[in-house]
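[Q] Does anyone have a clean structure-token version of this?
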Amino acid sequence: QVQLVESGGGLVQPGGSLRLSCAASGFRFGSCAMSWYRQFPGKEREWVASITSDGGSTMYAASMRGRAAISRDNSKNTVYLQMISLKPEDTAVYYCRAQKSLFDLWGQGTQVTVSS
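[A] Here you go.
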């Protein structure tokens, strides 16, 4: 089955950290650029970070630069998003996305809530 499954979300206190995972199956994960997005209630999804297919290059949105690290393990068909110094305004549903040419696949999302 062609799918992306996110995990690792949950409730964390301000200043805390989380590592999100996104497990891929059913397609050539190692050929795809991978990205993380997030969606605030009532807002459109916004891009958080991306990593090239070989993991050699990463890019970050200004809002997360210095507080997030995207990585991948192509042997495990998994992409990660490590987040630190979380703020209440980081509360959102986080999605991963796989892209290669016309191939474009989204996961179902995982909720991250930053609250004391």
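[Q] Thanks! Anything notable?
[A] DSSP finds no helices and eleven strands in the chain.
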